[in-house]
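[job 0412] stage=fold_complex status=start
inputs:
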Amino acid sequence: MTELADDGGAPRFANWAGRNWALVLGLVMVGSIVALALLAEIISPASPTRMRMAQALLPPSGAHWFGTDNLGRDVASRVFYGTRISLFIGIATVLLTGIAGTLLGLVAGYVRTLDGVLMRIMDGFMAFPALMLAVAITATLGPSSINAVVALAAVYIPRTARVVRASALVVSQLDYVESARVLGCSESRILWRHILPNCLGPLIVQLTFVFAYAVLSEAALSFLGMGTPPPTPTLGAVIAEGRDYVREAPWICLFPGLALLICVLGLNLMGDGLRDRFDPRRSAGEP
Amino acid sequence: MIGFITKRLLTAVVVLAIVSLISFSLMQLVPGDPAVVLAGVGATADQVEAIRQAYGLDMPLPVQIGRWYLGLLHGDLGRSVLMGSPVTQVIAERLPATLSLTAIAFAISLVVGIAGGILAALNQDRWFDRFVLASSAFGLSIPSFWLAILLIIVFSVNLNWLPAGGYVPLGRDPVGWAMSMILPAFSLALLQIGYLARITRTALVDVLSQDYIRTAVAKGIPHWRVVTRHAVRNALIPVVTVVGIIFSLMLSGSVVIETVFSIPGLGRLMSSAIMSRDYPVIQGTLLVTAAAFSLINLLVDIIYAVVDPRVKYD
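[job 0412] stage=fold_complex status=done
writing structure:
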């Protein structure tokens, strides 16, 4: 039976994804970064934090695939471990943004009396340039992984709430919601069982893009020294450290940036692919 | 029309009031005693007390909020802890560099992004369209500070064509100004190019499938004329509405780009104020950029309503 189920499932996924090259390519790119992060202990040639001054600024070789930095640390290991922080902060931001954004968006879209107040507050948060607000919040709370997540959530919750509100507004006008009410469903049952499931498509698309922007913004925060503090290696911090050595050791900056590019591009492609499936009328997501 | 503009103005005032309240609240997020943080490491108890009184931190919260709003109405954003001068003056000094950078980056993104989007839409589903879509995906995904460093490695370190950083005021040396702006402006523009190309392409593909385009073609109007006179004009309307977002994205990017290229603008002011815990400067910069963004959006909406009478306030 298991075999039968597997055989039935595989071609259906192939059909579903086959015409959607953006989704497949995105999944492969993100999957490879996730694999690097999960297997960091096994595949890293050395410890990401061990300094060996005798081996400083070595170019890429068999022993050090991505070369070494100014303190003789292995850049490949630092990149592999760095993807963990990027993915962790990305996922945590997506979870926090998804939960809070959905709640706020549903309430604003369904409880008309609260809509004005909630959306004006969201507008207030969205008026700040995204990275400036995130930098200001992390700087105030102090640089750490958790504070970076809080700051990024403050940036992306209003944008996500707006997407959910827009779908909730449309869905709550549909006939079947009225039917549910006539049948005697409670307001909370209508909200959770009838309106929320029909807002999920645009929400999933939005959260995929939030994941991409969160990884990118976390790298910018770390680059400015406002992310996860050392000695934990983060992609943004490795690039910042390599900045002073672009003349003699450009590989320090090159490889962490490539890892970031693959991860963010993969997430963006996944978002494009999912949008074609779930939300074909929306054009481009706001970066 | 008048009704729309009045309502839109009122909303802008409300949002500005919320924006300033958020900026004010930042100080309340400081863990521990803000006066101790502001006074800096190694300050004596007397110095902390002097800071507490100078910044009104000894007063009850509602009074502090009242003083903050009263100051704003007088154009007073407080004083920089580090430099001692008024925050408004510090920001005004940094404005020319950021304006130069964003103006050039804006021009690059408009020209390249819109042209790319139009050409992509006219070659829908052919290789050029795929090329534009793929490059816009790259533009939206490349970390701008990393791209900036790569450009420095190629054009400054190896080819030695352009300066690796620094800012030359336009009034002093126009050629030097332009040279110092090329790399930062391009690094800053790439994200917006990708965004604009996508929006323009989607809008133009949409317009080209409309009935009035078929009518125009059927009347025998030459193809290029249908595109320039009938299609592109209408396709640019959604592009106009994202001008505010583009501006906001560039200010975000300026924080890292100005840091990489050592350009003394608002973004670098922000990142250096953060390093020195200069909260009045952080609050002021946040507030000024958010207010500018709200103002641009207000203007865009009003112009939009004037141009397109179908727009109603929801």
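[job 0412] summary: The mean pLDDT of chain B is 86.
[job 0412] exit 0
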